[in-house]
Amino acid sequence: MNLQLDDLHVKFQHFSIDLFQNDLINWFQQEKRSLPWRENRDPYRIWVSEIMLQQTKVDTVIPYFHRFMERFPTIQALAKADEQDVLKAWEGLGYYSRARNLQTAVREVAQAYGGKVPDNVDELGKLKGVGPYTKGAILSIAYGIPQPAVDGNVMRVLSRILLITEDIAKPKARKIFEAAVEELISREDPSSFNQGLMELGALICTPKKPACMLCPVQEHCAAFQQGLQEELPIKSKGKKQKTMPYLSVIVENAQGEVLIEKRPEEGLLANLWQFPMADAAEVSVEQLAYWFKLEYGIQIELGETLQPVRHVFSHIIWEIIVLHAKTADATTEQGRFVSLSDINDYPLPVPHQKLLQQIHVPE
Ligand code: SF4
C-alpha cells in the first residue's frame, strides 16, 4: 500500500488540483439531478438517503425516501417508532439490517446527542451502520466538512482519472482512494466536490462505456489520455453465489386466512415475516405434509404447485418451489393465520411478496 501512496504523490505533481475541482464543481452545479434529499442540508435526511442508496438505485430509492420521510420526518419520530413499522416502510428495499441499524443509531442520537446528528468523525463513526462512506457523506454534504466519501462509484471514477490500478474489490483499496480524495477535495465546497464525484460516476463515468466525450474532467483524466478507460477499475470477481433450494407452502384455513411466521431475530431478513419454508435439501415434496405436522403441529392437504420463485441476494440465491395447501386447523403456536386484507400490515421480504402475489393481487 505504501508503494501506491507514494505513487499517488508522484501523480499529483502533474495534476492541476484547482482546475480539476473547478471543472467538477461547476459541472455538478449546472447538471445535478434534482433529488428529494438535495432539497436542504438536513443531516437526518441525508443520512437516511445515503443508507437507502447503499446497494440500491436512485430511481428505486426516491419513492421509498418520500414515504419514509412522511412516516418518520424527524430523528425523534424514527427513534420512537415500532421496529415492525420501520421494516414495513423498508419492505422491498432489501438489506433490512440497514433499517434496523439506522433506527438503533437514530435512537442513540436522540438519547446521547439531544437529537442532533454529530458533526465530527469520532462520534458519527461510532453510530451503528455508519461506515466510512456514510460518515464522509454526512459530514461533507450536511456540514461542509472536507472528509472523503468513497464508495465503489468514486473508486471507479478516481481509478480512471488517476490511473490507480489497485484492485477495488480488496478492502485495503479504500485507503488509497481516501488518501486521493483528501488531496483533491475542495476546502471551500467539499459538499459539491463529493457529490460531483458521485454524480459523475452515476451519469458520465459509468461502469461500462463511460461517456468520455461529454465528461467535464476529461482533460484531467489519465485513463482517457491513454485509452484505458474501459480497462479500469481493476476489480477481481467475488465468490460465486450459493444456490439454496426451498419448499414453501401457502397454507389456507377454512376462513381463507393464510399462515405466516416471523423469521428469527438474527441473520438474513431478521424479524420479517414469511410463508413457511422448508430446506429442500432435507425435505422432499412427498415428506412435506409430515414435516409440516412436526414443525407446525397442523395437518395440511397439499394442493396445486404454483410458480417457482427465484430471488438473488448478494451472497446467495433462493430457489423456491411454491405449493398451495389447505388445513382444517385454525391455529398454530409456530406462526399466525392472517386474512389477506391484513397481510399487508406485516413486513414481507420481496421473495415472499412474490409468493403472495400468486394468490392475492393488492388493491
Ligand atoms: Fe471517466 Fe472518461 Fe471522464 Fe475519464 S474522461 S473521468 S474515464 S468519463
Automatic annotation (TrEMBL):
SMART domains: ENDO3c, FES. Binds 1 [4Fe-4S] cluster. This is Adenine DNA glycosylase. GO terms for molecular function: 4 iron, 4 sulfur cluster binding; 8-oxo-7,8-dihydroguanine DNA N-glycosylase activity; adenine/guanine mispair binding; metal ion binding; oxidized purine DNA binding; purine-specific mismatch base pair DNA N-glycosylase activity. It comes from the Bacteria. Keywords: 4Fe-4S, DNA damage, DNA repair, DNA-binding, Glycosidase, Hydrolase, Iron, Iron-sulfur, Metal-binding. Pfam families: EndIII_4Fe-2S, HHH, HhH-GPD, NUDIX_4. PANTHER family: ADENINE DNA GLYCOSYLASE. It is an enzyme of class 3 (hydrolase).
